[in-house]
Each structure stands twice: as structure tokens, then as C-alpha cells.
From TrEMBL:
Family in the record: Belongs to the YciI family.
Pfam families (alphabetical): YCII
Domain YCII-related, chain residue ranges per copy: 50-136
Protein keywords: Signal
Signal peptide annotation: 1-26
Protein source organism: Segetibacter aerophilus
Keyword Lyase: no
Keyword Cell inner membrane recorded: no
Protein name as annotated: YCII-related domain-containing protein
Length: 159
């Protein structure tokens, strides 16, 4: 074997080794990846999925009767808890007073706005038009619902 053919052989071996190494690295991706968990959460290859973001805003109806308003908002909070327990509501919370009339947000663990609308029909404050909604599809971490298992552990007072 001549000097040049021996060098050519070495170059081929190095190229095969590099391409095999790069292919293996590209396929392995994240060493912490847990396929079973990703699948159970509906994650795509980036660990993300679609949700529906709901902006709650002041509605067109104002109720002067405090007892009735309290009852409606008690039902609103009970509905939040129920949807969270069913795994349909991932995030909920009020917003500070603002000039746009936004009162709070929900992130619903559903893929479509039509699915979200069905869930929102169960909320007494939305039914009474004390709150109204704006809905947007939102692409976020599929792991977001996992925080719910910890939320009750940090709530000193429940509603």
C-alpha cells in the first residue's frame, strides 16, 4: 500500500467515525428526556404543546346585590377548583387593577378554542356576564400542568 492510499484510508476512517458520532449525538438529544412522561403530557419534540389562554375582563353586567355577587364569585372559584382537579385548568389567577379592565387569566389544558368555550360555559361569573373572555391559542411547556401537584402544598388558606 502506498503512502497516499494509506492516508486516504485514514481520512475515510476519521470521516466515518465523525459522521457516526454526530448522528448518534443528533439522535440522543436531551440526555434527561423521559419519553413516557413526555407522552403522558402530550409533549411534542420540543417539550411543548398547545393550550388556550383566556383573558378574563370586566363584563357588561354589574350586579348591585352584594349577596348575589358573592354567590356568583364563590361559584366562579368552585368552578376553577373543579376544572383544575379535572386537569382542564392549568393556571388561574387575578390581575392587578388596570386600565384595560382585565381581571384575570386562565390557561386551559385544551388544544382548541371551541373546547375552551365549552369549559367556560360552566363558570357562573361568565354565564352572568360579570366576566367576559378573550381566548387565544398559546404554545407552552407541556410540563406546565405538573405544577398543580405542588400548589395545594403551598396554600395555607383555600377558597
Amino acid at each position: 500500500m502506498s503512502f497516499h492510499s494509506n492516508n486516504w484510508f485514514k481520512v475515510v476512517i476519521v470521516l466515518v467515525f465523525l459522521s457516526t458520532s454526530l448522528a448518534a449525538k443528533a439522535q440522543s438529544g436531551n440526555p434527561k428526556f423521559n419519553k413516557a412522561l413526555a407522552d403522558s403530557l402530550g409533549a411534542d419534540d420540543y417539550g411543548m404543546k398547545m393550550y388556550v389562554l383566556v383573558l378574563l375582563k370586566a363584563g357588561t353586567v354589574t350586579i348591585a346585590d352584594k349577596k348575589k355577587t358573592d354567590s356568583i364569585f364563590s361559584g366562579h372559584l368552585q368552578n376553577i377548583r373543579r376544572l383544575a382537579n379535572e386537569g382542564k385548568l392549568t393556571v388561574a389567577g387575578p390581575l392587578e387593577n388596570n386600565d384595560k379592565g382585565y381581571r384575570g387569566i386562565f390557561i386551559l389544558n385544551v388544544k382548541t378554542i371551541s373546547e375552551a368555550k365549552v369549559l367556560l360555559e360552566t363558570d357562573p361569573a361568565i354565564k352572568a356576564k360579570v366576566l367576559e373572555t378573550e381566548l387565544y391559542q398559546w404554545y407552552g411547556s407541556a410540563a406546565l400542568p405538573m405544577y398543580l401537584q405542588f400548589s395545594e402544598k403551598v396554600e395555607k388558606t383555600t377558597y
